Structures are given as C-alpha cells and as structure tokens.
C-alpha cells in the first residue's frame, strides 16, 4: 500500500473523527486502503435514460429525463403529500413526496432539465414515483451518463449517521477523485498482466466502484479476483516451498521385504489403477529427501485403507515406526482388526491405542512404542497425548482427516525430533478449487476409481407415510441374507431429544422386527466405548441383522454384507454427510439401497439436496453441488480453517481464475523464491506492507 492508502480514515474529506470511529467499528474501515477495498455488492444501471411511455407494471427502477411543469399539495394528516408533474417528450408522470415538501419546493424549479431515478408505483390506475432521486441534468451527465452506480452494504448504526449506501458512495467517490494512479501501485508483474489480459490495479479499483460500463466492471472484478486468489496461493506455496527446504524427509530406500511380501501374498485382489498411481506418488515422495505432506482424496469405498497400509509398510521396511490415526474408536478398532488379519504371518508388531486402552495394557504399549518394539500403531486422538512417545516415527497416516482440527493434525508432526512423512486421507470429496485453497500447501492425490464389480447404489426418497412399505422392503432384504443400517440424526444442541428419537425408533422397530427372528444392534454417542464396540461387533459378525445408530457410524465402518441404509429425518443432514452415510453400503457384490426418509413437508433446499443424492453417486459432483448450495464457509473441513473470507472470488464459480492465479504464483515461487528480481519488487513491497493483515499467513 502506498503511504496515502495508509492514511487513517478520519482524514478523508467528509469523514472526521465521529464518522471515522463509526467506519472503524462498524465496517472495519481503518485507513483509506480499507475503503478502497470496501467493494459494492451490486450496482444500479444508470447508463440508460428511459421514457415515460415505457413504464409498465413490471418496471423495477427507471431513470427519466424531463422537467417539472408544476407542484400541488394534497391530502391531510398522514396522507399529506407534495406532488409534481414531471414530463418528457412521451408523457407525464406524478412525483410524490410524503416528507420534506418545504425543502423540495425551495430547491426544485419548474421548466429546468432534471434527471430522475426511482421505482414506479401504480396508484388508482396511474403510475407515480415516490421520493425519486433527482438532480440537475448537467452537461457532464449529457456527455458521459451516470453509468453503473454502486450499492454498498452498511450497518444499522452506520446508516443512522448517513453512512448508508449513498453516504459510502460519496466517500468512495471522494477518495477516488483524490487518488492518482501511482498511489494505487501495481504489484503484479507486467508479464502476468499481459498474459491474462488484466487491467491495472488502479483502473480496477476505479471501475469496481464507479464502472464506466459493464465491460469495464467485468474486467475490474476479474482483475481483483485474480489478485485475491493469487495472494492466497502465493503464501500457501511459499509455506510449502519453505517446508521442503527447511525439513529434510526420511528416505525409504527399501521396499523389498514386508511391503513386497504383502503385495504379492497378502492382497486378495488386484489394486485399481488409481490405487497403484497413488502408491507411486507416495513412493516418489518418500524417496525425494523432502518430507511428504500429501492429501489423499477418494470417495467412500474407493479403497484408501489398503493404500494407507502399504504406505505404512514402506516405513516399517526401512526400520521406522508408522501410525494410523482415526477419528472414532469404532473405526480405530476396525482398522486394527483388519490390519492384524491382513498382516498375519508378516513379522510386523501391531498395537491399538485408544481412550479405552487403560492400565497395564496401556503401559505396555507406551513402553514398547518408546523402545521401538511396536512397528505399527493404530488409534484415536489418544495417539497425540504427551505420554505417547515414539522411538522413530517415520510415517503418519490420518484417516478421515476432515474430522480433525488443524491443530490436532499438526501435533502429530512434532512427535519426532525429525518430522515424519504425513498422509492425510479424506472421503469427503473436496471440490478442486477448495482443495487448492484449503489444502493448497499439500500435494493432492486422488483415487477416482472404485474397485471393480460394485453395483451403483440405488437411492430412493420416501416420506413417513410410506413407512410400512419400507419395513416390508427391509424384511425382504433381510430374508435374502442382507443387513440393514438405520441412522438417526444427531444434533449437538439437543442430544437428549435426539436420543429420544433414536430410542422411539428402536422401540417401534423392535415391534416390527420381533425377536428371536430378528436381532437389532444399537450404537449411539452416549454409550461407553466398550459397549459400542460390542454392539458393532455383533453386527460385523452378522449376529444382528439391523444396526440402529446415530451418525457415529458415519465414518469409515466397513461391513460389506450390509446393503440397505435407511436415513431417518434425512432433511436434517447436509449433502456431504448423507453421501458419507450412503457410502456404508454398496461395498459388496449385492445391489445396495439407500432410503432417505423425510416428513411430508420439506424446505426447498432440503428437496434439492435429496434430489441431488437420488441422481448421482459421484462424490465429486455432490461436493460441487454442496459448494453451490451452501458456499464454502459451511463445507466440512473448511469450517475450522477460517481462511475463506474471500471478498470477491467465489470458489464455486471462479475455478478458472483460481487455476490461473495458482499457476502464476507457482511460477514466481519457482523462478524467484526470495522475490529478489527487479520485476518482483513491487510484489515484495506489497506483501511486506500487507502480510500482517492476511489471515492465511498464519497457517502452516
Ligand atoms: P475407503 O476408501 O472408504 O476407506 P475402504 O478402504 O474401506 O474404503 O475399502 C472398501 C472396501 O473395498 C474394502 O472392503 C476393501 O477391502 C475393498 N477394496 C479396496 N481396494 C480394492 C480393490 N482394488 N479391489 C477389490 N476390493 C477392494
Ligand atoms: Mg476409510
């Protein structure tokens, strides 16, 4: 920012100490530069002058040029009003004021050219315009028109001091009149401006507030979106580059022992092409000498677990310890049992560490982790407690990473003197644009292929009225030997109420599916971990046919014989969560079903969510829809990150701008990481002056 843009806002013409205080407190406008970045949220088109005869009942706003032929007052009390007849070449219309008649009569003259702007109103079969904006039709307007006029948001308190949209317009206008181009210096290199045909920073700022025309507005917005996204990317990539430089990564030279034996003998299926590709990417990272920081995205059921296991074996083969952290005990237990089963015969020492592992067992595990006798540990948050010490942790895998906060993830980084390689996995597909922004400092691998032989899950919407038919359907499926999940929503604010719903559901199901023919498992968040696990195991072993649960089963549980997922109160779940839940079925060879139950009445948004889900099984399509429906702020995984306060860019629709911005940032960081070249001086200066204000400078 130039010195002028750092000037405290009260020094702007028309502000002063009192309004300055309001601007600071209410709108977070501290200095001139903040006002410049206080962009309008829409515009009214004042570029065209219409005619009176064009007005129809559908006209929203209209701008007219003409003159007043006379005034008259009418009505009494609250009906008291001043009216003026306004005429142009095509006709007449009444202008109406319910207040301020004296002032109007004093300032407006008959037979003088005026430009008026307002909203026509139909009254007794005639149009009038109440309280129009009105100004003299000057030569300036005649030649350049009024163009697009900005509309700014404001706060109630600010509005009371005339800092409404109009008031702010006056201020931005004053500021832009005073600023000369060199006071809004360009910081993008000329080459970049040329390559993407971007207008200068000054021109963009001038036109986003007072666009000369639609085309220039479009260019201004494009330039400023580019700038916004470019600055984020530059910092993310800088963080990434620094990490590579500062931190040396362990080199896993050997894969000839456990990895190879397991690959050849332990796998009872051929890896998909996507799984193989991801393993190669990881292999390359672990040979590169820099620390791996990789995000593995793959839809539910795409087979991330086996990739994780093979990845950990790479570490074990090279004499390192590996760990896998999962967000729930159920999932950690399941991973543990599968792993023990799969690695039978290989000399790999595997342990489970969760909150329920206590006393002697815990002591034993902690001691052996510290001594290096345990090769591979699987667990929950319990793994990041201070008491857990590794001898030489070389590979960390974090499953369903969106469930962990950034801080929790980071604490595993520091478990070793020398940071281990990190693989974070998520089954919540993240739209590309979002991944580039939220995880922009990570490398991203994608499993975009499901194991062969899977049948697409059929998703069906039913209302409560059809419950009896739904039960009939469940009986048929159970008859065929299948198992069924029934999931109830859990919303933290009213856990007791949710538990009641779950219990009511359990009772009515117990009646519809009586013992001993039918056995039902139940799992919810208020249960003790051991009880949860017991119930879960009954279902896994097929001792029960029905599993009633809250969303604790959302994450990762794998029971291939379960082929029906019933989601109660589906309207209370978000798209991503519904998709996750649905992913619990469709894991075997049988046709699977997902039944979305709702009440009769639904909001439009919930209807839309349910229809998206009935139409597609593709997690990435669903993620894009979710982004469109809710905006990035609410998406799973971005909530904690708090770094998406974008002013202009929209991650749902600005993918192209983001790609370009990222590419540009990448080139600059590669060519000139210290920004030492002459053409990067303005950028370096800009970053120095602004970095402290940018939230994303904090992430690591
Ligand atoms: P997710 O990616 O959701 O974690 P999992 O790793 O749990 O998925 O895998 C889902 C199921 O698919 C598991 O039963 C797993 O054994 C199986 N699976 C994984 N990869 C393959 C493959 N290449 N061929 C056949 N089955 C596979
Ligand atoms: Mg999984």
SSE layout and pairing:
Elements: H1 16-27, H2 32-36, E1 42-45, E2 62-74, E3 81-88, E4 91-97, H3 101-107, E5 114-118, E6 121-123, E7 126-130, E8 133-136, H4 139-144, E9 148-151, H5 156-160, H6 165-178, H7 190-195, H8 201-209, H9 214-246, H10 258-266, H11 273-287, E10 293-298, H12 304-317, E11 321-325, H13 329-342, E12 350-353, H14 359-371, E13 376-379, E14 393-398, H15 406-413, E15 421-426, H16 432-438, E16 443-447, E17 458-463, H17 467-479, E18 483-487, H18 495-512, E19 520-523, H19 529-540, E20 546-549, E21 562-567, H20 575-582, E22 593-598, H21 604-615, H22 619-630, H23 655-671, H24 681-690
Helix pairs in contact: 8-9, 9-23, 10-12, 11-12, 21-22
The structure holds adenosine-5'-diphosphate and magnesium ion.
Question: Nearest-angstrom radius of gyration?
Answer: 32 Å
- Beginning-to-end CA distance, first to last residue: 25 Å
| Share of helix, binned | 25-40%
Q: From the 3D coordinates, which CATH architecture of the domain at 458-616 would you assign?
A: 3-Layer(aba) Sandwich
Question: Bound compounds, please?
Answer: adenosine-5'-diphosphate, magnesium ion
Number of helices: 24
State the major sheet. 7 strands, mixed
Which structural class best describes the helix and strand composition? alpha/beta
Find the CATH topology of the domain at 458-616.
Rossmann fold
User: For this structure, what is the CATH class of the domain at 458-616?
Assistant: Alpha Beta
How many β strands by DSSP?
A: 22
Uncertain ranges: 634-643, 693-700
Mean pLDDT: 87
Net shape: globular
């Amino acid at each position: 920012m130039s010195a002028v843009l750092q000037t405290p806002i009260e020094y702007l013409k028309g502000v002063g100490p009192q309004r300055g205080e309001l601007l600071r407190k209410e709108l977070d406008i501290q200095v001139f530069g903040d006002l410049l970045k206080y962009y309008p949220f829409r515009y009214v088109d004042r570029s065209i002058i219409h005619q009176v005869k064009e007005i129809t009942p559908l006209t929203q706003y209209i701008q007219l040029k003409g003159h007043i032929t006379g005034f008259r007052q009418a009505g009494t009390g609250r009906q008291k009003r001043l009216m003026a007849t306004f005429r142009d070449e095509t006709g007449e219309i009444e202008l109406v004021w319910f207040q301020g008649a004296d002032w109007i009569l004093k300032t407006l003259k008959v037979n003088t050219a005026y430009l008026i702007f307002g909203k026509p109103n139909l009254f007794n079969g005639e149009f009038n315009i109440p309280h129009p904006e009105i100004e003299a039709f000057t030569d300036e307007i005649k030649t350049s028109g009024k163009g697009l006029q900005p509309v700014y948001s404001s706060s109630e308190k600010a509005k009371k001091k005339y800092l409404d949209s109009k008031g702010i317009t006056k201020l931005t206008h004053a500021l832009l009149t005073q600023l000369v181009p060199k006071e809004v210096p360009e910081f993008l290199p000329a080459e970049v401006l040329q390559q993407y045909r971007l207008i200068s920073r000054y021109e963009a700022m001038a036109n986003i507030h007072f666009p000369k025309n639609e085309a220039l507005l479009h260019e201004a917005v494009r330039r400023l979106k580019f700038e916004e996204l470019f600055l984020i990317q530059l910092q993310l990539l800088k963080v990434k580059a620094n990490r590579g430089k500062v931190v040396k990564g362990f080199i896993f030279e050997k894969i000839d022992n456990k990895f190879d034996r397991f690959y050849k003998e332990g796998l009872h299926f051929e890896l998909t092409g996507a799984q193989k590709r991801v393993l190669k990417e990881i292999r390359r990272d672990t040979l590169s000498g820099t620390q791996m920081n990789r995000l593995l995205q793959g839809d539910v059921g795409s087979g991330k677990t086996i990739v994780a296991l093979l990845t950990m074996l790479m570490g074990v083969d090279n004499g390192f310890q590996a760990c896998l952290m999962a967000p729930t005990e159920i999932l950690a237990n399941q991973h543990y049992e599968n792993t023990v089963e799969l690695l039978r015969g290989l000399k790999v020492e595997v342990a489970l560490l969760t909150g329920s592992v206590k006393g002697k067992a815990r002591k034993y595990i902690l001691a052996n982790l510290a001594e290096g006798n345990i090769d591979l540990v699987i667990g929950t948050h319990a793994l990041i407690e201070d008491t857990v010490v590794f001898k030489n942790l070389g590979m960390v895998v974090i499953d369903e990473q969106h469930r962990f906060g950034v801080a929790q993830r980071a604490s595993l980084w520091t478990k070793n003197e020398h940071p281990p390689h990190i693989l974070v996995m998520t089954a919540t597909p993240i739209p590309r644009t979002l991944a580039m922004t939220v995880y922009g400092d990570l490398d991203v691998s994608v499993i975009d292929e499901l194991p062969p032989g899977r049948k697409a899950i059929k998703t069906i919407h039913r209302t409560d009225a059809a419950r009896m038919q739904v039960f009939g359907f469940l009986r048929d499926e159970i008859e065929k030997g299948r198992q069924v999940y029934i999931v109830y929503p859990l919303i933290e604010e009213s856990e007791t109420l949710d538990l009641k719903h779950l219990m009511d559901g359990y009772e009515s199901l117990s009646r519809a599916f009586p013992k001993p023919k039918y056995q039902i498992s139940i799992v919810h968040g208020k249960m003790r971990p051991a009880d949860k696990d017991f119930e879960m195991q009954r279902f896994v072993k097929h001792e029960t046919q029905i599993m009633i649960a809250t969303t604790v089963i959302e994450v990762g549980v794998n029971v291939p014989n379960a082929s029906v997922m019933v989601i109660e109160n589906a309207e209370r779940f978000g798209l991503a969560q519904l998709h996750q839940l649905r992913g619990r079925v469709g894991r075997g060879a049988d046709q699977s079903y997902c039944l979305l139950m709702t009440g009769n009445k639904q909001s439009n948004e919930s209807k839309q969510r349910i229809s998206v889900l009935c139409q597609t099984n593709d997690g990435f399509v669903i993620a894009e829809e979710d982004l469109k429906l809710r905006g990035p702020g609410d998406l799973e995984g971005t909530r904690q990150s708090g770094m998406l306060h974008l002013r202009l860019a929209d991650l749902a629709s600005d993918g192209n701008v983001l790609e370009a911005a990222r590419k540009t940032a990448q080139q600059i960081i590669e060519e000139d990481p210290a920004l030492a070249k002459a053409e990067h001086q303005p950028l370096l200066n800009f970053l120095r002056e602004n970095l402290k204000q940018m939230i994303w400078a904090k992430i690591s």
